[in-house]
Amino acid sequence: MVNVKQLNPDASPQAAFGARVRSSREARGWKQDELAERVGYSGRHISAVETGRKPPTHRFSRSLDTALGLTGTAESFERAWGEIRNGSLLEGFPEYLDQEARAAEVRLFEVGAIPGLLQTPEYARAMEEGNVKRGTLSPEQADERVSFLVGRQAALTRRVPPMVIVVLDESCIRRPIGGAEVMERQLARLIEFADQPDTTLQLAPYSMGERRPFNRLVNLLTLSDRSVMSYVESETNGSLDREITSVLPLLRAYHQLQAEALSQADSVAMIEQVRKGTL
């Protein structure tokens, strides 16, 4: 008799997902290979997901829904996958993304790395591969993050696009990510971004010193009703804030940052110099 591994759905959201896959499969009287044939994966993959050894992906979850007749229902595995994915994001970030996709104006400040909205797929891939090497993400999770980022960028391409204002610390264009070719394409992407009609790009040079008001990521959204919210992130925590008394000081500091930063023309010139290796 084959030993069936006992599952503990309370161990983690991923374990709960796997336990649901097994129970749904067994309720239909299917063996792992039978489910595998229906979803286009191997029996070994089904086993790994059921026992929590392999995280589910978006594609796999959608295939499960199709095979089990759960597409669009409250019990769908795609929905469960979304809950797992959002659970790995910092607090407040999933809600921030919902608001970002509807915002009339998006203001970003970043230190150390190009922000997600401006990343090329190659740059994003290199960032996630670093997480895989450190053991903080599985290869499947890295794939999902890159796909998710592409979807996030596409959400801002709409009939009336938002105004996107970005100030990058000089470190963002100096820090090499993914090698020379990846950085070349990424810096070219920044120049293309700056040339669009609904964007502004500025650099906060090292020479600003203590006059730079922020030392970490700051996002500010202006919605269609002109209300403003902020999202501030640290290494381990994210905070979405709608209280005007705490958002206004950040907005004021952002205006000060823009006044001190290089003009867009000078910023693009610096990016070109870094790109050509002349600065």
Characterization of the model:
With 279 residues, the chain is α/β, with parallel strands linked by helices. It has two domains: 13-87, Orthogonal Bundle (434 Repressor (Amino-terminal Domain)); 93-118 and 155-276, Endonuclease Chain A (Endonuclease, Chain A), CATH 3.30.870.10. The protein contains twelve helices and six strands. It has helices at 13-27, 32-39, 43-50, 58-68, 77-87, 93-100, 121-134, 139-155, 171-174, 180-194, 244-260, 264-276; strands at 105-110, 163-169, 199-204, 218-222, 228-233, 238-241. The chain has a six-stranded mixed beta sheet, with helices on both faces. The longest helix is centred in the middle third of the chain and has 17 residues, at 139-155. The protein is elongated, with a radius of gyration of 22 Å. The protein starts with 12 loop residues before the first helix and ends with a helix.
Summarize the structure.
By secondary structure, this protein is of the alpha/beta class. Helices cover 51% and strands 12% of the residues. It is built from twelve helices and six strands.
Whole-number tally of structural domains: 2
Residue fraction in strands:
5-15%
- Please state how the strands of the largest beta sheet are arranged side by side: 3-2-1-4-5-6
Order of helices and strands: HHHHHHEHHEHHEEEEHH
Q: Roughly what percent helix?
A: 40-55%
State the CATH architecture of the largest domain. 2-Layer Sandwich
Relevant CATH superfamily of the largest domain:
Endonuclease Chain A
